[in-house]
Amino acid sequence: MMRVKKLITGICTALVLSIGLADASAVQAAEAAPASNISVTLGTTDNATAGDQVTARVVLGDNPGITTFAVKLAYDSNYLTYTGATWANAVSSDSSNVQLISEVTENGGPVLNISSILSSTYSGNETIVTLDFTVREDYTTMPVTLTNREITNSSYGAVTPSIVVDATAGRPNSNNDADDEDDEDLDDEDLDDEDLDDEDLDDEDTEEDSEEENTGGGTDKNKTDSGNKNSSTGGSLDRTPKTGATDVRLTLGAAVILFLAIAGICFGLTRKKRP
Q1: In a structure prediction context, what are the per-residue pLDDT tens digits for the chain, which is 275 residues long?
Q2: Which of 5, 58, 104, 155 makes an SS bond possible with 245, Cβ 3.0 to 4.6 Å?
Q3: Are 248 and 27 in contact, with CB atoms under 8 Å apart?
């Protein structure tokens, strides 16, 4: 009986040690996991003259899913005056999110502290915030600089940003859409003029009726083809799934519960009296 008791005690001890080692390995793996990365692009407005209204856009890419976003933008007040900001709709539409932009002075110049604390994981690859300025003096390159303060993922781990400057990033293309609509209207007017010309020719010379009918048929076919070519397509929606680092806290909690259960069983068996 003593041998059986020692055997049970040894098995329980081995199980407890194996669970402890597994917990330690999980913690080390979580600590050793590489930090998430995200690309942050500062879209600038170059070649501006005094009185112009210009913007600086902060555009996210390769977003792993974030819960905190904090950066700072320094600008030259000799050339620019800050007037306001607009956040992405996905951020500002949630009343539980907190957005804050405060202006401070660093190294003798103005700096905008830009922060957003998100109630849920935000995975948008888009312009997260647009900053508005009025130009005080002509410049060629927009005098702004963006640096990181703190960005965290869904597990509140640090996210490392790669910050670049691109004057085309986040720039709206509404003018191009208006030009396309104008071109379509002009094409329709040209086709209507051709139809009127065909009717005039029919009235003047009845001997050319068959030719005019063929011309009219060709014109109608061209009009149909032109309408098909000029039909607009709807914009694509961002279906980027939300992602985030795996939280190991649930795994550790389950392991602790299992450890306590096995320890209790082993303690009961070792205290059992022999018959």
Answers
A1: 555 566 566 665 656 555 655 555 554 544 444 558 999 999 999 999 999 999 999 999 999 999 999 999 999 999 999 999 999 999 999 999 999 999 999 999 999 999 999 999 999 999 999 999 999 999 999 999 999 999 999 999 999 999 999 999 988 764 444 444 455 455 555 555 555 555 555 555 555 555 545 555 554 544 444 444 444 444 334 443 444 444 556 667 777 787 777 777 776 766 655 54
A2: 155
A3: yes
The pairing of beta strand 53-61 with beta strand 127-135: antiparallel
CA distance 32 to 16: 24
Number of domains in the chain: 3
Residue 95, domain extent: 36-165
Q: Is residue 244 part of a domain?
A: no
Contact predicate 37/115, CB 8 Å: no
The verdict on 95 and 23 lying in the same domain is no
The C-alpha atoms of residue 18 and residue 228 are separated, in whole angstroms, by 69
pTM (2 d.p.): 0.55
